[in-house]
Amino acid sequence: MSASTPALAINANDGERLSTRITFLITGIVMSAWAPLVPLVKARTGLDDGGLGLLLLGFGIGSIVAMPFAGYLTARFGCRPVIICSTLALCAVLPILSYLAWMPGLALAVLLFGASMGMLDCAINIQSIIVEKNSGETLQSGFHGLYSVGGIAGAVAMTVMLSLGLAPLLCVLCLVAIILAALYKAAPSLLPYGTERDGPLFAVPRGIVLLLGSLCFIVFLTEGAMLDWSAVFLASHRGMEPSYGGLGYACFATTMTIGRLTGDSIVRRLGGVRVLALGGVCAASGMAISLGFDSWQASLLGYALVGAGCSNIVPVLFTAAGRQQHMPQRVAIPAIISMGYAGILMGPAFIGMVAHLSTLTVALSGLVVLLLFVSYAARLLKVQ
């Protein structure tokens, strides 16, 4: 009996790792499925840019409001029911977003979509931290790499199906079927427990948690800037044809995905502190190259370096969040993710404001300083 126990433990651990990877893959697919629907929502409803911005604000509000509850629910009921219920809610709301034109209903659907995504995002990260701690190995980069793979796969699948003339509802239902099949595979090995139950429902981040959240804010702000402003910069400042502007984000996303898929071995070899320090310098250097050399080729190289540098920063930060003892994890993890979401939601708008008052080059230059701060802050964190 005793001889079989280690084998059973290894098998259980393998199942937990696989289920965690699948949930990150699912989250990436869902997010990328929503992105192509946004312009279709705008065309279907006749909203202008301002109206669409207000509608999309519901996604951010729903996400940030729901995150603290995700920490409580995973502690109370376990990761498995929270992940399953939030994924099923997303699968129910996505088809509605693909065809509904009635504004009150659409606004409610976007709010629910954001809340469900925030719940899922928190729950899978809590699961990933527990699985990594239980294994005693470095796993976070690989988990987050599957999110990036899911994002690419979902975007490609939606683009291909829409280009073939399939109705948006049919495209979404095809992806929902894939998501449900993946969830069915992952569900048995999802954790039936969560983090500790002690602590308040919500707490203001402080100490090391505030620092971790601030660094997440910077990295997500950088990602949001690449998503929203790289194409604009290439077209307006580097003379690239607008139709090719997406190459900037493609370079960023590609190196980020590769970096995360290979990141666990890199973190094991170099250690978390060095990965943060070198990653911040690499990303800051890439941003400086993209701004300092007057050619679109240099900008594309710079964006690739930004993606490579940022790729493993957030996974290392979540590892550090799982080890800190300053705040209960069920409070700390949602707080850190919420600060990250704030960066990707509010950051690009702030860059736009600064660009309006000065220039886009000046606005994006601020990211160089922030990314260098990430590198400097590495010495303050106890990560391995």
Textual characterization of the structure:
- This protein is an all-alpha fold and 384 residues long.
- It folds into 2 domains: 4-189, Growth Hormone, Chain: A (Up-down Bundle); 207-380, MFS general substrate transporter like domains (Growth Hormone, Chain: A, Up-down Bundle).
- The chain has helices at residues 4-34, 37-45, 49-77, 79-99, 103-135, 140-163, 168-186, 207-237, 247-261, 263-270, 272-292, 296-310, 313-323, 329-357, 360-377.
- α6 packs antiparallel against α9, α8 packs antiparallel against α15 (360-377) and α11 runs antiparallel to α15 (360-377).
- The longest helix has 33 residues, at 103-135.
- The two termini are 35 Å apart.
- This is MFS transporter.
- Pfam families: MFS_1.
Radius of gyration: 20 Å
Give me the strand/helix succession.
HHHHHHHHHHHHHHH
- The CATH topology of the largest domain is given as Growth Hormone, Chain: A
Helix content: over 70%
User: Separation of termini?
Assistant: 35 Å
Please work out how many helical segments DSSP would assign.
Answer: 15
The CATH architecture category of the largest domain equals Up-down Bundle
Alpha-beta classification? mainly alpha
| Beta content | under 5%
Give the biggest sheet: none
Question: Which runs of at least 5 residues are low in confidence (pLDDT < 50)?
Answer: 1-10
Form type: globular
Count the domains: 2
* Mean pLDDT over the residues: 85
Top CATH class of the largest domain = Mainly Alpha
Could you give the count of β-strands?
A: 0
Gist?
With 384 residues, the chain is mainly α.
Keyword list:
384 residues; mainly alpha; Growth Hormone, Chain: A; 2 domains; globular; disordered N terminus
